[in-house]
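Q: Here's a chain of 176 amino acids. Please give me its 3D structure as tokens.
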Amino acid sequence: MMKNIMILPVILLALGSLGGCSSGANLGELDARLEEIKARPRGRIEPPPEFKPVASYAYSAHQLRSPFSPPVDQKLLVVPDGRKVEPDLGRPKEYLERFSLDALKMVGTIARPDEPLQALIADPSGAVTRVRPGSYMGKNFGRVRSVSEAEVSLVEVVPDGRDGWVERASNVSITE
């Protein structure tokens, strides 16, 4: 008997919902609306516009001086007599030649008996490297000429702007 009482509301609910589906009062309006939509003229998709090709441009400014480095001062240019200035491109690069001189900092010196004074140079990552006269550093083939307690003097080989090379004096001073 308890089962019959529980099944009865379920049966009544199912019959009520089926009765709502059988009334065709709104189906006529729905069919009319669908026919109206189908009778409308169909749209036309226009073809995309034709694009004219743009003339290509050969960018060659990568060979020029960086706008962020100072221009070559004519007073600093040293044109040696009797010898042609050009970088030694066959020489293996040293570690500090990966960085520009602006990114390198002198953090100290080391003095050993019977050896020239050596400078301690920190790169942007914080690693410290020793340099002595004859070492190379900087992106412009900078060769260390001398090391003092306050700075490292070097000579860079830079393009002269006329398909040649010139030497330019530079230095890296100690930072406090």
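Q: Can you summarize the key feature?
A: Strands lie at 77-78, 105-110, 118-122, 128-131, 136-137, 142-147, 151-159, 165-173.
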